[in-house]
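Input:
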Amino acid sequence: MSEVVVVDYGAGNTRSVCSSLRTLGYESVVTADPAAITGSDFVILPGVGSARSAMTHLTETGAASALAERYAADGPILGICLGLQLALEASQEDGGVKGLGLVEGLVVRLETARIPRLGWAMVEPWNEAFYFAHSFVAESPHSVATSEGLCAAVRHGSFFGVQFHPEKSDVAGLNFLDQCLSLA
Amino acid sequence: MPLPRLIPCLDVAHGRVVKGVSFVNLRDVGDPVELARAYSDGGADELVFLDIAATPNDNETMVDVVRRVADVLAIPFTVGGGIRSVDDASRIIEAGADRVSLNSAALATPELITEIAARFGSQAVVVAIDAGDGVVHSHGGRRATDIPTVPWAAEAAARGAGEILLTSIAQDGQRSGFDLVLTQAVRDAIDIPVIASGGAGSAQHVAEALRVTDAALVASIVHENPEGLPGLRRKITALGIALRPGGQTHV
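Output:
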């Protein structure tokens, strides 16, 4: 496999994703370069920051169209947390932000008792606990897993997005990442 | 609600873990990286690193610790101590920390909470409150302010904090149980999660805290017997608290 591309959109922490990949034996590069995004065997759209600044950055660097092109060509993309939310059509975050629109669905503010929703929670039907840290959540017809009734994963075509942070979910997270990568 | 969390807290000074950690199987008990790995293997849900000696000169040392910890850790961790600006927070988060904890700096400049939350999200901002006699204390709990505890927690939440780390100064280090009344009062006043801190002396104490709040910080109870973390988790689970299941399978 070629280097895994971790898409850079100028916010936060990509280091943990890269560390997890290294643990699993995969080299990675953090970049927004469109050619790298279309050309890599596996692309991760990581998840920290705000939707608006992420979309602005992705659009300005050409990464947004490269991700659409990659998706159209059936190239695997894993979205993590905000990375999942960005792939949908639109988000309520920051007063309304248009997403990449790869997969049908919307991102809405959580209505749980405590926000942000922080901590480990079971994901069904996988029957594993993963680490969540979010204030918004996806609503999509392509939801494939839930956590406490909330969308925890979306899968459609070559896109797989998870609301939790596999890179922060200890052994369960590493196993999940390993499976995603070995299927690619 | 997500599962309750058990969070070991490590005090760091000049890049070394200090204060009574007595791991027997480690080559270097002062190495934050080795300790982080050991606690993670023991099933910790998260870790907190507090730079208790933070001076401006120490900033780079802490950033280096954060980088090395992030390279080995696959659970979330928070870093506090000496973070006084958005730039300080950025350096810590970009080095690999999930969240920063603000204490005296948030009291001096409450706007800092909002600024860091705007850049990295609320989930990245913990406001640590050292509470005693109904008021907030600054400078590591040494200076009483005239700010009442519960309203300050509410203000921190309103300004964008994603979690409150609430330490009872009276209970801290006593190992006689958490201040459940204080914890409950703060939690009832806000709608963000609250970590109880100060007073853990037994599994029973931790279980009591986790019945009223989202997470419990533990220090000496695990530092004096770090190999005992899986056992502590089992005891807490036996007391009816559902901790994450995966934490005990790879010990």
